[in-house]
Amino acid sequence: MRDFTLNSYRHLLLAFQQANYTFLRYEDYCRIKQSGDALPEWFVILRHDVDLKPNNSLATARIEAELGIKAVYYFRAVPESWDEKIINEIASLGHEIGYHYESLTTCNGDVEAAYQDFVENIKKLRQLVLVETICMHGSPRSPFDSKDIWKKYDYKELSIIGEPYLDTDFSQLFYITDTGRRWDGYKVSVRDKIPQYQEEWTLKGWTYHGTQDVINAIKENRLPHRVMMTTHPQRWNELGVQWMKELMMQNLKNVVKRAMMRNCM
Questions:
Q1: Quick one: 176 exposed, middle or buried, by C-beta within 10 A (0-12, 13-18, 19+)?
Q2: CATH architecture of structural domain 6-264
Q3: What is the mean pLDDT of each run of 10 residues along the chain (265 residues)?
């Protein structure tokens, strides 16, 4: 089975279902935590960062809906992500929609301007759908980390109940992402990782490279029982030209990311 195809994604979802994982949207996770109720013993939060190619996100959203699964999709406020028809259609399937903000990058590090940009963009998104959670876009080529806006401002004053990097208890929940078009992409990621726990997870053997490795871990009860899984749907394509193009481009990006990380050390 070729990796990072829609077929391999469907097999991944089926493996979670067959292992009796509960699927939570991120807003569900936040509300359960705030209520003080117990979280399920086994659950996965499917988080999708819609960086590019929103049609790919619609494809994964439809697969999930066919299987009775709900996820969260974070859209950027840029033309290559923001497609209002697709945003509305994904929401109509029962999925959560959130704002994938990068305001400190787009405003060149100006915190005040970044906050105003954030407020304007989330207002526009809320004119389309309900938005209760947000998630930082890593912007690996930028020197700015957009989460730094919240050192001065409080997003909860804007009726936002959660931000995955700031409101998730990663001491009780394992994080895995397809950053780098691989499941051990933390090795080449600038910001899409949880550095304070990664060494501990690695020592426990919670590292996986391909999607089949993750599926095997689920089937053999070697994947943690509480998981946040992030995908970037532009990486998941039917076999063909787009699949090959994504493979080649991501391999090139990984080389650049490694160089950037060495320069930061």
A1: buried
A2: Alpha-Beta Barrel (3.20)
A3: 93 98 98 97 98 97 98 98 98 98 97 98 98 94 94 98 98 95 84 91 96 98 98 91 74 55 52
